[in-house]
Design brief:
The complex is a heterodimer of chains A (442) and B (464).
Chain A (H helix, E strand, L loop, with lengths): L1 H25 L16 E6 L3 H18 L2 E6 L4 H10 L6 E4 L2 H10 L2 E2 L3 H10 L2 H6 L1 E2 L2 E2 L2 E7 L2 E4 L1 H7 L7 H13 L3 E3 L6 H16 L1 H8 L8 H14 L8 H6 L3 H9 L5 E5 L3 H10 L8 E4 L11 E10 L5 H11 L2 H10 L17 H12 L5 E2 L1 H4 L2 H4 L5 H11 L4 H16 L2
Parallel strand pairs in A: 1-2, 1-3, 9-10, 12-13
Antiparallel strand pairs in A: 3-12, 4-12, 5-6, 7-12, 8-10, 8-11
Helix pairs in contact in A: 2-16, 5-15, 7-8, 9-10, 9-11, 9-20, 11-21, 13-14, 20-21
Chain B lengths: L1 H9 L3 H7 L5 H43 L13 H8 L1 H33 L4 H9 L6 H11 L8 H14 L15 E3 L5 E3 L8 E6 L15 H5 L7 E7 L23 E6 L2 E7 L5 E4 L8 E4 L19 H26 L3 H9 L4 H29 L3 H6 L5 H4 L2 H9 L6 H30 L1
Parallel strand pairs in B: 3-4
Antiparallel strand pairs in B: 1-2, 2-8, 4-7, 5-6, 5-8
Helix pairs in contact in B: 3-16, 4-16, 5-10, 5-12, 5-15, 6-10, 10-12, 11-12, 12-16, 15-16
Classes of the chains: A alpha/beta (442), B alpha+beta (464).
Chain lengths: 442, 464
């Protein structure tokens, strides 16, 4: 009974509020609030994978948009499986206006289904002016630009505990071999060099992608991502061999291979930044900082620092990235406001809103680096923007999920097998090719 | 099932209607037929909602899945039996079939057996109800929660997994821990590792020498509190009949220091066992002092090897890898037992309560002991209940999904997979091939059907 009354009350309030809003909207020009608000009275629904603090921070961006234009916004968190949720919403006639798509593969799938509206001229112009071409390419399907990359991740950062490196007397290394050498010195000091999260297959794919991008170069990387190059290619075997140098060295990995296979991603951060350190360095994206800070109370920049993933052999240092692209759905109810929202997201102003609160990197090169809240984020952002067109999107996120995104199958599982026994890169490459061929269906 | 129904209804019919009373008039017969028809219509109306529900929720999905299994991933192209052939060419599916077979054979057998034993024993305890309640309680825990609990309990790290914590502490009580599990020597700096994990000097040493045995890989914090710098001891000369040396940590904090030499800041490693070996025979043993020094007195002249036995470096016992590829399925079955034992016990206990006491009494009077009563009377009389419990569990085990999905870590997911998880993985969990997934579903259905038919037969048999 009590509950019913509260719902009634809530709906009354909602009704009153919406009435109020319409009233305001109707009297727009008269009520001289804050200049002209061209979109007042419209509501856009935004869907994305974010939840928790990311959702809270994105809400600030949405609020800023509302402030500016008067359009109301509504954010829905889809959970991990964006494509399924959005697909069923479209079928149910309840499509959101804007979706923040976390994978290139999903964006392509949406475009091929014909669900997406290409970006408006204004948005396209901002993308041309503010973004490196590579981001434009990752947002385009068959020559039309659909996606605007608003938030990016930097997945070429090796995080370390400065204490551990000081104790061993080593500096942040500049090449992969130097990194292994530094790792050996760290392990001589009694602390394992790396903590590898082998229980989570995706961290291993990220390791591989960094090595491959640096060693084989961006062109080969693109070809392999599109499965135009086979996984049996010598370049893959070479990259696996390079990675195997690290994986097979028991002294470099905390707990040896068995220990690594038993460590999940949060556990791997804990091994470096937790109360009882067991390793000096952990490789993963910029989000390691978030875990180290929120869960283990480390001060980023003092107790936890990073160096860019070093170059392998003669290659350039890799910058592997990921990101969420905003797309506008054709079936949305207020397409005009939705496009205006994307135009807004393309401006440095929108990125600055989130950059100030942290946990955010923008691929937008016009964003003033001073907007970022701390030095480390600023550095990662700078490295991402400076890398320009040599940035590559996470390869496993470009692959079909059966190959690049399934627990216990495909690339995840095969790289775990490789971590368990790194002695035969050729056989691993062959197994990867077999799984890839099946998943790409070609 | 329907066929037998009809037969059952028809069989008694002809007696009163046709054969029974030959003198019945035409009108009478008409009336009866109408009444019968009306009864049938009424019955149909009553059954209709159930039929509709069954049709919509069971029959239609089953038929749809069967149909879907003949189409490819997109659902547009008819591929005939390709999904079925592909299914049996996929090693993951074969593993799933194998694991499901293990489950079906082991889990229900163990559960029925355990349930029977517990039910019989519980009857004899004073606090039977409390005991039953306790055993039945895991049934109230959702599979998801139980999975998470057991995932933690089975964790390989003894600091997290309670099972390994127990195993490791028991092991350490009997075997003890080594003092420097992580220590090791650098390659090519005077020490060679032997197959048994011990280190020996590569070159022979003789009395009158002072040797420095440098090791690395020990954290400064992990050194015993009494450890002292090794430099003074390393500089001391040995008398002619004595072999001296230091075991030291060849690593200077913050870098620097010369490898292979005792630097001023470098600490000795106290408590390390050292042996002097000549011609393969141990002629002296010592333990290092606080500064890492050791000496062997009054040795015969000649060439010796100084050895650090492997017991110094034995890695800590890591417990059993419950969730490794070999043990993961038995481990998950263990979790399943924890949940379902109470169920088996309560059902069998109910059957036990309904047993005719006179048979038991008579046996006792005739001088049978408890084991004979259990073996010759209780079990045979309980057989119908045991079969029902067993078959119900078989059906239940076939669809086990949550426990397997949650408990098995990523790297061994494939080693633990069963048909139900495989079906989900292939259809939704990344594979997105609902054609192949449907084929797996059909396979699962085919495997469950015999058990279901058997169970339904039994129920009807017991109703009659």
């Amino acid at each position: 009974m009590m509950r019913r009354r509260t719902t009634l009350l809530a709906s009354c309030t909602a009704l009153a509020l919406s009435l109020g809003a319409t009233a305001c909207g109707g009297g727009g020009p008269v009520s001289a609030g804050g200049g002209d608000k061209p979109l007042s009275g419209q509501t856009i629904n935004v869907a994305g994978v974010w939840s928790g603090s990311e959702q809270k921070n994105f809400q600030k961006v949405l609020d800023a948009f509302t402030e500016k234009t008067g359009a109301k916004t509504q954010f829905t968190s889809t959970g991990d499986n964006v494509s399924t949720v959005v697909g069923s919403k479209i079928e149910g006639g309840n499509a959101p206006d804007v979706v923040m798509v976390p994978q290139v593969g999903v964006l392509q799938q949406f475009a091929e289904e014909g669900w997406l509206r290409p970006l408006s001229k204004t948005a396209r112009k901002s993308v041309d002016a503010n973004y490196a071409d590579v981001w434009k390419n990752y947002g385009s399907v068959d020559g039309s630009l659909y996606g605007l990359y608003f938030k990016a991740a930097h997945k070429s950062t090796v995080w370390y505990s400065p204490d551990a490196l000081d104790e061993a007397g080593v500096e942040a290394p500049a090449s992969y071999d130097a990194m292994l050498e530094a790792g050996r010195t760290v392990s001589e000091s009694g602390l394992a060099a790396f903590s590898v999260a082998g229980q989570d297959g995706w961290t291993l794919t990220d390791w591989f992608e960094n090595v491959y991008l640096s060693q084989a170069g961006p062109e080969k990387y693109d070809a392999l991502a599109a499965h135009e190059t086979k996984w049996t290619d010598p370049s893959v075997v070479a990259a696996l061999t390079t990675l195997g140098k690290l994986f097979k060295d028991k002294e470099l990995i905390a707990g040896g291979q068995k220990g690594a296979l038993n460590t999940d991603f949060p556990g791997s951060v804990e091994k470096v930044f937790g109360p009882e350190p067991a390793a000096g360095m952990v490789y993963e994206g910029d989000f390691v900082a978030g875990v180290a800070k929120d869960q283990f109370g480390k001060k980023i920049g003092e107790d936890a620092d990073f160096f860019p993933f070093p170059a392998v052999g003669d290659g350039k240092a890799p910058v592997v990235s990921g990101g969420d692209a905003a797309v506008v759905l054709k079936d949305g109810k207020s397409p005009k406001a939705a496009m205006a929202f994307l135009e807004y997201l393309a401006t440095p102003e929108a990125s600055a809103v989130w950059a100030e609160v942290g946990g955010f990197l923008s691929p937008n090169k016009e964003l003033d680096l001073a907007s970022y809240g701390d030095d480390i984020t600023r550095e990662t952002a700078k490295s991402l923007v400076d890398a320009g067109d040599s940035v590559r999107f996470d390869m496993s996120d470009q692959a079909p999920a059966a190959f690049g995104g399934t627990k216990g199958a495909g690339e995840w599982k095969l790289l775990q097998d490789f971590l368990r026994d790194p002695s035969d890169p050729k056989a691993t490459a062959a197994a990867l090719e077999k799984a890839a061929a099946k998943a790409y269906q070609d | 099932m329907t066929a037998t129904d009809l037969r059952d209804q028809k069989a008694p019919d002809p007696d009163p209607a046709e054969a029974g009373q030959p003198s019945t008039s035409q009108a009478d017969r008409d009336r009866r037929r109408r009444a019968r028809r009306r009864a049938r219509v009424v019955a149909f109306v009553f059954v209709l909602p159930a039929l509709l529900l069954l049709g919509a929720l069971v029959v239609y999905p089953v038929l749809f899945s069967v149909g879907r299994s003949f189409f490819d991933a997109s659902g547009d192209r008819f591929v005939g039996g390709d999904n079925y052939t592909e299914m049996f060419h996929d090693p993951a599916t074969i593993k799933a079939v194998r694991n499901t077979a293990i489950w079906v054979v082991i889990a229900p057998t163990l559960l029925t057996g355990l349930g029977l034993v517990l039910a019989v024993l519980v009857e004899k305890v004073r606090w039977a109800t409390a005991f039953k309640l306790l055993l039945f309680m895991p049934m109230a825990v959702s599979f998801l929660a139980a999975g998470i609990i057991f995932r933690l309990a089975y964790d390989e790290d003894p600091d997290k997994g309670v099972l390994n914590a127990a195993v490791v502490s028991v092991h350490d009580v009997f075997k003890g821990e080594s003092s420097y599990p992580t220590a090791r020597a650098r390659d090519g700096q005077g020490l060679t590792k032997d197959v048994d994990g011990s280190y020996g000097t590569s070159a022979g040493v003789s009395p009158g020498d002072t040797v420095g045995l440098g090791l690395v890989g020990v954290r400064a914090e992990d050194l015993p509190a009494d450890a002292r710098p090794a430099y003074p001891a390393a500089a001391r000369k040995a008398p002619a009949d004595e072999l001296r040396g230091v075991v030291y940590l060849d690593f200077t904090r913050g870098g620097g220091g010369k490898q292979g030499e005792v630097d001023r800041a470098e600490s000795g490693l106290p408590g390390m066992a050292v042996e002097a070996v000549r011609d393969g025979k141990t002629v002296g043993s010592a333990t290092t002092a606080a500064d890492g020094s050791f000496r062997f007195e009054s040795l015969e002249p000649g060439s010796y090897t100084v050895r650090l036995p492997g017991s110094n470096f034995a890695p800590p016992y890591e417990g059993i890898s419950w969730l490794g590829p070999a043990l993961v399925t038995p481990a998950i079955i263990g979790a399943y037992l924890w949940i379902w034992t109470g169920f088996a016990m309560v059902l069998i206990g109910a059957g036990l309560a309904a047993l005719p006491r006179d048979a038991l009494e008579a046996a006792r009077m005739d001088g049978a002991n408890e084991w004979q009563i259990f073996r010759r009377i209780t079990v045979p009389l309980l057989a119908p209940v045991l079969t029902v419990v067993f078959v119900t569990l078989v059906i239940n085990v076939m669809k086990v999904f949550d426990l397997v999905y949650i408990i098995a870590p990523g790297p061994v997911q494939e080693d633990a997979t069963v048909l139900a998880t495989q079906m989900w993985l292939v259809s939704f969990g990344g594979g997105n091939n609902q054609g192949l997934g449907s084929a797996l579903g059909v396979l699962l259905l085919l495997l469950v059907i015999p058990a279901m038919v058997f169970n339904v037969r039994r129920f009807r048999g017991s109703q009659r």
